[in-house]
């Protein structure tokens, strides 16, 4: 009978699961007024959102709360985005907030985030494009309003820290409809003044007041500038697009001046320290060289220089003896070789070898004489030529050909005449 009754935990857990499975409750956008706001020491925000008729509990964990660019207070109208779920311990439903914007400027924050994302994707915020700020600038440019706390703070700080720096002010509109064009104009104009560093900024204000420094044309002008730029817009918690593009971001105008120029007193102290270190280094070097010189003066070689030559002379004698020994050995080897050659068979039997060679040569000549066809002519033979070719057959000539006949003692010419076979021997 009691099985049909549920515990409070069970029904709460069931309702929570229904909330968590509902896609419509996973991405909710609400607007309302903050009440009962509490910033926990752990960094979380606890508060309620209400309108004329209803109220809902809200929690924003530290990871998201740290991204809020304003200080939430009771009575402030805000826009929040998050998910709806049930907190099981109390059974209350509440919104877990991921983002929170001030109502009325929400569109500006959306535009700010979209432009920030776009320029970041293009690489305008990359550290690789940022120029270094010179350590000791001679000329400092300032783009800001000619009146107000910002210019006073910057000028006072520069004069106090580094009075020898030349400052050039470019009076500029820093808020309002025409401010962005005026800022861009002066950034480009600053290129003509041979500046070492340029401060661009203004004092604090609302997001609407600072909006000129969130404009795309201002961001691109800062990026394209050949002068290193320090951004100094608003207070420490204010971040603009200009801050991300600039070569260096200062939390306040005063901090920008401190980053732009060194402290004269610090420089003087640094130079004094360098002078001391230089003097110590020179003194140490001189003392070392003195000790080195003394060690040379007291060395055994300097005090007894002839001993060094004695050892060299002894070494020279050894080398001379070695060379003489090698020369004598070489001469002896050559003599021994010459004696061997003189005792060789060829030289001791040259007459016999010469006689043998003459006999061999005569035999070769005799054989060549026997083979010489001209010697055959002496026995009554002849050689017949037709146009310098030897006639070997009657087929090689025809009647009336002029042939040459070589005999033993000369040539005769003859015309060929056909002789019949029966006439041979007549």
What labels describe this entry?
alpha/beta; five-stranded parallel beta sheet; 44% helix
Which structural class should the secondary elements be placed in?
A: alpha/beta
Strand line-up of the largest beta sheet: 1-2-3-5-4
Helix content: 40-55%
Low-confidence stretches are none
Order of helices and strands: HEEEHEEHEHEHEHEHEHHHHHHHEEEE
CA radius of gyration? 59 Å
Total helices: the number is 14
- Overall residue-averaged pLDDT value: 87
Which shape, going by the Cα principal axes? elongated
Biggest β-sheet strands, sense, barrel: 5 strands, mixed, barrel
Percentage of residues in strands: 15-25%
The number of E-state strands comes to: 14
Distance between the termini: 171 Å
Characterise the protein shown here.
It is a single chain. The protein is an alpha/beta fold and 426 residues long. Helices cover 44% and strands 21% of the residues. The protein has helices at residues 8-21, 62-65, 106-122, 149-161, 179-189, 216-224, 241-245, 253-260, 264-297, 300-303, 305-342, 345-348, 350-371, 373-377; strands at residues 28-39, 45-50, 55-60, 77-87, 92-102, 139-144, 166-171, 197-202, 229-233, 248-249, 383-386, 389-390, 402-407, 410-415. A hairpin with a 5-residue loop joins strand 1 and strand 2 (45-50). The chain is elongated and about 160 Å long.
Short account of what is shown:
This protein is α/β, with parallel strands linked by helices.
Topology of helices and strands:
Blueprint (H helix, E strand, L loop, with lengths): L7 H14 L6 E12 L5 E6 L4 E6 L1 H4 L11 E11 L4 E11 L3 H17 L16 E6 L4 H13 L4 E6 L7 H11 L7 E6 L13 H9 L4 E5 L7 H5 L2 E2 L3 H8 L3 H34 L2 H4 L1 H38 L2 H4 L1 H22 L1 H5 L5 E4 L2 E2 L11 E6 L2 E6 L11
Parallel strand pairs: 3-5, 6-7, 6-8, 8-9, 9-10
Antiparallel strand pairs: 1-2, 1-4, 2-3, 4-5, 11-12, 11-13, 13-14
Helix pairs in contact: 4-8, 5-6
């Amino acid at each position: 009978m009691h099985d049909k009754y549920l515990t409070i935990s069970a029904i709460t857990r069931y309702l929570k699961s229904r909330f968590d499975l509902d896609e419509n409750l996973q991405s909710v956008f609400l607007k309302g007024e903050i009440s009962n706001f509490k910033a926990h020491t752990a960094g979380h925000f606890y508060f309620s959102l209400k309108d004329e008729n209803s109220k809902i509990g809200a929690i924003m964990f530290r990871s998201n709360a740290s991204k809020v660019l304003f200080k939430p207070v009771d009575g402030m109208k805000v826009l929040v985005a998050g998910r709806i779920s049930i907190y099981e311990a109390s059974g209350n439903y509440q919104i877990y907030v991921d983002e929170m914007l001030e109502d009325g400027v929400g569109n500006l924050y959306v535009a700010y985030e979209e432009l920030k994302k776009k320029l970041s994707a293009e690489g305008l915020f990359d550290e690789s494009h940022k120029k270094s700020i010179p350590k000791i600038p001679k000329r400092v440019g300032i783009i800001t309003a000619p009146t107000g706390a910002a210019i006073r703070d910057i000028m006072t700080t520069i004069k106090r820290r580094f009075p020898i720096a030349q400052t050039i002010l470019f009076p500029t509109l820093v808020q309002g409809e025409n401010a962005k064009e005026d800022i861009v104009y002066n950034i480009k104009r600053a290129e003509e003044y041979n500046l070492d560093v340029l401060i661009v900024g203004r004092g604090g204000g609302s997001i609407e007041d600072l909006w000129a420094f969130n404009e795309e044309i201002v961001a691109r002008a800062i990026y394209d500038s050949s002068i290193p730029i320090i951004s100094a817009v608003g207070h420490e918690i204010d971040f603009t697009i200009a801050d991300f593009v600039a070569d260096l971001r200062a939390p306040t105008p005063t901090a920008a001046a401190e980053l732009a120029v060194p402290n004269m007193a610090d420089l003087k102290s640094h130079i004094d320290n360098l002078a001391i270190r230089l003097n110590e280094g020179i003194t140490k070097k001189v003392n070392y060289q003195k000790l080195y010189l003394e060690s040379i003066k007291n060395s055994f070689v300097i005090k007894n220089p002839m001993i060094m030559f004695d050892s060299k002379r002894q070494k020279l004698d050894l080398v001379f003896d070695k060379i003489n020994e090698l020369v004598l050995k070489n001469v002896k080897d050559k003599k021994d070789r010459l004696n061997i050659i003189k005792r060789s068979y060829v030289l001791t039997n040259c007459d016999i070898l010469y006689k043998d060679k003459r006999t061999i040569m005569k035999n070769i000549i005799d054989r060549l004489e026997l083979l010489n066809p001209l010697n055959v002519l002496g026995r009554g033979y002849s050689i017949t030529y037709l146009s310098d070719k030897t006639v070997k057959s009657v087929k090689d000539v025809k009647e009336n050909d002029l042939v040459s006949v070589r005999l033993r003692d000369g040539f005769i010419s003859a015309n060929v005449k056909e002789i019949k076979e029966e006439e041979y021997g007549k």
